[in-house]
Amino acid sequence: MIKAVLFDMDGVLYDSMSGHVQAWYETMSAVGVQSDPDDFYLFEGRTGYSTIDILFNRNFGRDATEEEKKSIYARKTQRFVELNAQSKPMPGALEVLEKIRQAGLKRIIVTGSGQSALFDNLDAHFPGYFDKNLMVTAYDVKFGKPHPEPYLMGLKKANLHADEAIVVENAPLGVESAVAAGIFTIAVNTGPLPDQTLWDAGANALYLSMQVLAENIEKHIQ
Of 128, 107, 91, 88, nearest to 214 (Cα)? Predict the structure, then answer.
């Protein structure tokens, strides 16, 4: 019996991924790191420090120092705030949440993000839908997505087994993380990546938007 739904945040609850991509691309370019904007859609779900290390290894053949990571991530965070001070909820997200609440299920956030601006907006955009004790962020885990730790921690915080939950994800690495944790995973393709990328990551079901998921969520939670 399903008791909870675990949600990624960027690209699922918030239409915020384009801001993250632009902030990352501008920040990394400013410190002499070559990248492609599409890289950051593929990296979505990783911790910020992990993303920085991948690009430093690609460009310089080494991990970034702790000082470099702190400086770059702080700069990226500030740029994201400038671009997305008022990140908008993803169309259809509230309808999905309401149907889940009506079904009496817990709602849990599992995100690789540490952006305080988005967390501050949760109560305003989704009042009463989330408990701060049922959130897993970049600061709660040692290993980010695609490692299963984030979703395993989400299950642990809610005192759940994997077969008592489902996941809603938009990113390939997030899908891989949830599947590795043994949880039925619904992919919602709200970004520019091909659907096949999400299927290849192991998605159990796929919808083209949160609005379409809202029309079909009952079949997954009943």
Answer: 91
pLDDT in tens, 31-47: 999 999 989 988 887 88
* Domains of the chain, residue spans: 4-16+87-221, 17-83
| pLDDT, tens only, 136-168 | 987 888 888 999 999 999 999 999 999 999 999
Residue pointed to by tokens 């540490």:
114
Distance in angstroms (rounded) separating the CA atoms of residues 151 and 141 = 10
The verdict on domain 4-16+87-221 having CATH code 3.40.630.30 is no
CATH topology of domain 17-83: DNA polymerase; domain 1 (1.10.150)
Query: What are the structure tokens assigned to 183, written together?
Result: 């949880």
Q: Give the predicted TM-score (pTM) of the model.
A: 0.86
Find the helix or strand (DSSP H, E) in which 53 lies. Answer: helix 48-60
Task: Find the length of the chain.
Answer: 222
Give the Cα separation of 107 and 101 in Å (integer). 8
Q: Three-state SS across 152-190?
A: HHHHHHHCCCHHHEEEEECCHHHHHHHHHCCCEEEEECC
Residue 121 structure tokens: 């907006």
Amino acid (1-letter code) at residue 66 = E
User: Is 169 in contact with 189 (CB distance < 8 Å)?
Assistant: no
Quote the tokens at residue 221.
């939670």
User: Are the beta carbons of 198 and 187 closer than 8 angstroms?
Assistant: yes
- Is 4-16+87-221's fold the same as 17-83's? no
| Residue-averaged pLDDT of the chain | 92
